[in-house]
Description:
The chain has helices at 2-21, 44-47, 53-65, 68-71, 103-112, 138-148, 165-179, 230-235, 264-276, 292-298, 301-307; strands at residues 39-42, 75-77, 83-86, 92-94, 116-122, 152-156, 184-187, 205-207, 219-221, 226-228, 249-251, 281-283, 316-320, 324-330, 336-342, 348-352, 359-360, 368-369, 376-380, 386-389, 394-398, 402-410. With 412 residues, the chain is α/β, with parallel strands linked by helices. It folds into two domains: 39-307, Alpha-Beta Barrel (TIM Barrel); 316-410, Sandwich (Immunoglobulin-like). The protein has an eight-stranded parallel sheet with strand order 11-8-7-6-5-2-1-12. Strand 19 (376-380) and strand 20 form a beta hairpin. Helix 6 (138-148) packs across helix 7 (165-179), helix 9 packs parallel to helix 10 and helix 9 (264-276) packs parallel to helix 11. It is globular. It starts with a helix and ends with a strand.
Amino acid sequence: xxxxxxxxxxxxxxxxxxxxxxxxxxxxxxxxxxxxxxxxxxxxxxxxxxxxxxxxxxxxxxxxxxxxxxxxxxxxxxxxxxxxxxxxxxxxxxxxxxxxxxxxxxxxxxxxxxxxxxxxxxxxxxxxxxxxxxxxxxxxxxxxxxxxxxxxxxxxxxxxxxxxxxxxxxxxxxxxxxxxxxxxxxxxxxxxxxxxxxxxxxxxxxxxxxxxxxxxxxxxxxxxxxxxxxxxxxxxxxxxxxxxxxxxxxxxxxxxxxxxxxxxxxxxxxxxxxxxxxxxxxxxxxxxxxxxxxxxxxxxxxxxxxxxxxxxxxxxxxxxxxxxxxxxxxxxxxxxxxxxxxxxxxxxxxxxxxxxxxxxxxxxxxxxxxxxxxxxxxxxxxxxxxxxxxxxxxxxxxxxxxxxxxxxxxxx
Length: 412
């Protein structure tokens, strides 16, 4: 009898353990999304909390009419301050004054343009703008976003006292998985918890720094936190390239191209370096009113092709001469992209002997650059001109705070 009772109790314990496993969560993201860096537009850099459904529709219209959609831009992302209140069951609703038609209707409009829609939330109790956060409501919010047919979620990190980032983001990605709609997850905890070390299976991109600031080379001190100019953001990408690749990208924050503080040269350098970094290209300007110079930068298909290259390798910094830096990026078909970045306030004359600069990208791609064995044609990606081959020493001038960006095309 004692043996029988023991056997029954043992059986019951296995049953209970098995039943407990039925509640195990899937803490992995949707696969096969963002296989190249996401491209789109986000409301925050230009409009901050001043968002409503008419503005978002106008941006979608402008993305199409400006040629940005044809250049590869896909996402129209609504950042903070779209939120209204939660109902008695805890479900979030959009601000009825700003979004009277509702988010599903707005999503339908954006989808009708052949675009995708993104939305914003926060892992904490409140968003950075003081709206309801997702803490404690992760599964309800994910289900709501799926019902609205959202395609992309930027998930911020304000008001997260007592939370650990990896666990909080795993909870939200599990919620997205449970909701059943493939959604790109943008991890936005500003790099403080080294998301590159754990984010690959949790999100599709992760912020590597604090917020970008609309200047080329400065730091904006807000007292309790700092925002960084484009060059400061660039410097903070050191050591991170090995973590990036198809479906999991380092995110140095959104673009400031066209927001007025940068000169045309600086806009060009900023955009080029984000392309070299295989960074998400998320514009942050007013698409309705941008001038031709801004449009020319944002829709340069040859530069975008470097960013969207399917090999998905982030550029390596090959040489650092203080205010003059050289970056190499291996490309899918054996070509290379090379950027000569002049950060100085004065123009830079330089020469570069291709044959004296062979190397192997040991850290990531294992690709070999050796012009003793392979000759390349040099295409200037901002003028479209063929400027020679690697058989000759390159002699060039880069204007102040500008860039010479080349595609090295294999020759027979």
